[in-house]
Write a sequence for this structure.
């Protein structure tokens, strides 16, 4: 029952964040890009529902990243560490690639002119591995330096 309550809590948080993200997409459409301005409500609803679980999982990882070492099951520790570092690596690489594409809007970068959304997601999943390894090494270094 405790696990279900935790799942329901983080799913509700993920739903709230997904709704806010959907509102930002519509606001972006009305202000900057007319392609997103008159989006069908069913498409927006499906996108919000699809993003609910990943957003909730992201919040759960962020909340438990400091406490996973206290768990008694070693398989839980290893699984959580791998999943959390890869997930954070994907998020950070996605944000970095989005910032690079935003820079491409102002300054023409020849290699990025043909980059599509699918390429962006694929590259962020690919770059999630090395960035996740760097996060793991940084967290390990910080935990070893604690008094």
């Amino acid at each position: 029952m405790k696990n279900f309550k935790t799942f329901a809590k983080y799913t509700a948080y993920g739903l709230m964040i997904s709704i806010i993200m959907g509102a930002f997409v519509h606001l972006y459409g009305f202000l900057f890009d007319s392609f997103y301005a008159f989006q069908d409500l069913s498409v927006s609803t499906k996108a919000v529902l699809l993003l609910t679980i990943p957003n909730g999982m992201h919040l759960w990882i962020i909340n438990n990243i400091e406490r996973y070492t206290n768990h008694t099951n070693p398989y839980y520790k290893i699984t959580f560490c791998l999943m959390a570092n890869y997930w954070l690596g994907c998020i950070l690489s996605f944000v970095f690639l989005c910032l690079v594409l935003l820079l491409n809007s102002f300054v023409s970068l020849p290699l990025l002119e043909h980059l599509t959304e699918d390429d962006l997601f694929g590259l962020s999943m690919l770059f999630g591995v090395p960035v996740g390894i760097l996060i793991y090494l940084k967290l390990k270094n910080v935990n070893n330096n604690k008094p």
In short: The chain has a mean pLDDT of 78. The helical segments are 2-31, 41-64, 74-106, 117-144. The two ends are 37 Å apart (CA to CA).
